[in-house]
From TrEMBL:
The lineage of its organism: Eukaryota, Metazoa, Chordata, Craniata, Vertebrata. This is Carboxy-terminal domain RNA polymerase II polypeptide A small phosphatase 2. InterPro entries: ANKRD40, Ankyrin_rpt, Ankyrin_rpt-contain_sf. ANK repeats lie at residues 43-75. The keyword Transcription regulation does not apply. Keywords: ANK repeat.
């Protein structure tokens, strides 16, 4: 039976092995009974956070199969899916990443922001909710969602066909003064990056 200190050391070794992509050591420690969801006391990172950050797809898959929680947040509010740049890993984690902005033809630069959706909850309603939450828009002010360059999304099956990093625009119902757009755009710098669990704490 391991002591408390030994258990903490084993947990740290598991996080280190995940960061290095050492699948053999990860498997050995997990089979030994080390907690896959243990977090570093300072930054809150788990072994899954490290595997995602370093883009070790095989380690990520094994950790998920072994019960790793993909919704645990770091001390900065980061989920594992936010740390990887590898599309294969995002799919393993069940996340869809989209680029969204508000349509505004008068701007020379109209930047996109990235949002994340759970593929298991991929509906038009959820896309609208998350997009509006992140962009600071009232859903009732959205006329339509357009997949660029010129495809209107209308139904759940349209949303289900979206691929990672596709570009979307919210087309707003606005008055002559463009008040709704200015009001929405002004909130972008005030809102943190969206993720499902952190949103419960920040919004």
């Amino acid at each position: 039976m391991t002591t408390f200190i030994e258990e903490k050391e084993l947990q740290e070794r598991l996080r280190e092995a995940a960061a290095l992509g050492d699948i053999g050591e990860v498997q050995r420690l997990v089979e030994f009974g080390v907690n896959v969801n243990s977090q570093n006391e300072i930054n809150g990172w788990t072994c899954l956070h490290w595997a995602c950050k370093r883009n070790h797809a095989q380690v990520v898959s094994y950790l998920i199969e072994s019960g790793a929680d993909k919704e645990i947040l770091t001390s900065k509010g980061e989920m594992p899916a936010q740390l990887t740049s590898k599309r294969e890993i995002r799919k393993t984690l069940g996340e869809l990443v989209l680029k969204v902005r508000i349509q505004n033809l008068s701007l020379r630069e109209n930047d996109f922001i990235e949002i994340e959706l759970d593929r298991q909850e991929l509906t038009y309603k959820e896309l609208l909710r998350v997009s509006c939450s992140e962009l600071g828009v009232n859903p009732e002010h959205v006329e339509k969602i357009r997949k660029l360059p010129n495809t209107v999304l209308r139904k759940d099956k349209d949303v289900a066909r979206l691929q990672d990093f596709q570009e979307l625009e919210l087309v707003l119902i606005i008055n002559d003064n463009n008040f709704l757009f200015r009001n929405a755009a002004s909130t972008l710098t005030e809102r943190p990056c969206y993720n499902k669990k952190a949103s419960k704490l920040t919004y």
